[in-house]
Design brief:
This protein has 124 residues and is mostly helical. The protein has 4 helices and no strands. It is flat, with a radius of gyration of 19 Å. The model has no long low-confidence stretch (mean pLDDT 94). It is a multi-pass membrane protein.
Length: 124
């Protein structure tokens, strides 16, 4: 029984670390605030345009994908800054490629948003 209790406590602590990271990401990083603003806009659009469940699902997946990419990018930036405080061309490339992941996620989510909103406006 003690093993189970210890397991549950360690899982609870892991959630705490994840929420701590989410707080850091959302409070201390300007790009995340832009993504949150886009999320709020899409929630309003989904409500006003009375999106069906499948469209809500697509929007939530896109939002999760963008926030996940932003979190991974920020984590990579933290590690690169830790191990390479001085300028290094490979460190710069690592950060650039991680940022490209956020760009791809954001652009594809933007296209999805345009398609979903456009469909709702044109086809009611």
């Amino acid at each position: 029984m003690n093993d189970f209790i210890n397991f549950c406590r360690s899982r609870w602590a892991a959630f705490g670390f994840a929420f701590k990271g989410a707080y850091d990401l959302l409070v201390n990083h300007a790009p995340s605030k832009i993504h949150l603003a886009a999320f709020v806009f899409m929630m309003i659009a989904c409500t006003v345009l009375d999106f069906p469940l499948w469209k809500w699902t697509v929007v939530i997946i896109c939002v999760g994908m963008v926030l996940c990419a932003e979190a991974l990018n920020t984590g990579i930036e933290y590690v690169v800054d830790l191990v390479s405080p001085d300028y290094n061309i490979l460190a710069g490339k690592a950060k650039d490629v991680a940022a490209a992941g956020v760009l791809f996620a954001s652009m594809s989510s933007g296209v999805v948003a345009i398609l979903l909103i456009g469909d709702a406006l044109l086809n009611g």
